[in-house]
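User: Fold this, then the next.

Assistant: Folding the first:
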Amino acid sequence: MDDTRKHSAFAAANEAHAHLASARKHLIGQRLPLAGMHRDLEKAAADLSAARGKIEEALQAVEASRLQMPAGVSD
C-alpha cells in the first residue's frame, strides 16, 4: 500500500472513529443534557452518517491499493 493511500485510509478511519464515539455519547445522553433526547438523536444520526462516509472513504483507499498490488505480493 503506497504511503499516500495508507495515510488517507488512516485519516478517514480515525475520523470515522471520532464520529462513532460522538454518536455513542449522544445515544446515552452525555452530550447535550439540556437540549433533550430529540436533539441527541438528531446529532447521533448526523454523526453516524458522517462515520459511514468516512468508512467508505477508507475502504476506497484500501481497495484502490489492493487493486494496484502485483499478484502474489502481500505486506
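Now the next one, as you asked:
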Amino acid sequence: MNFLTIGLDEEIPDCQLCGNKPRLICKTLDTKKGETVRVFLCKCGGTTRTSRDQHERSVQRQFG
C-alpha cells in the first residue's frame, strides 16, 4: 500500500464547502496522541483533516 493510499475500509470525507470528494495530500502519525492524521484538499480549495486513533475512532476537522 502506498503511503498516500486510503484503505478500502476507510471513507473519504465529503468536502464541507462543496460536497465533492477531495484528494488525500498528506498522511502522518501524531505520536503524542497515537493517531494517524490525514489531510484532504478539494478542487474548490476546501481542506479537511481527519484523524484515527488505535481504537478506530474517526474524527473530522475543518480548517482553512
